[in-house]
Design goal:
With 146 residues, the protein is α+β, with helices and mostly antiparallel strands. It has helices at 2-8, 10-13, 23-26, 63-78, 81-94, 99-121, 126-136; strands at 16-18, 33-38, 45-48, 52-57. It has a four-stranded mixed beta sheet.
Length: 146
Amino acid sequence: ITAAIRVNGIKKRLPVTKFDMPKSANIFLPSDTEVYICYGISVPVSMRWRKKTILIPDRSYTEREVCHIIRHEAAHLKLHDHGIVFLADILCILYWWNPCAYILKRDLTKNLEIRCDMEAAKGMDRDEVIEYMLKNNCKLEQEALD
């Protein structure tokens, strides 16, 4: 719970600016989601505490890279991954003495990333999926390429 509160406070503690979304990436964005450039993070982050928010690091991106980032983070929001991770955190709190709870959370987090990458790859052609996988170091299964 404290980790969620800390992550939610990123917008307040670190300098952020509204991100000017390209139209091609805007179609992947869920409704009422805000996108910001954040100057203190190294990887894109999606949050769903009070409002849906996507934070991206302060770098220069091509339009295609922005589309991939938004697709991936929007998939986390669409699939409610934040709630699943929250439940895994509760499980770790309840069973703090059991190492299996932490192993389960670690494996669950990895599987959620794979599921998110597969969701983000839907609707892409083969070359775009390969580029997405290579640039984002994804672990998409072979069936996503077929």
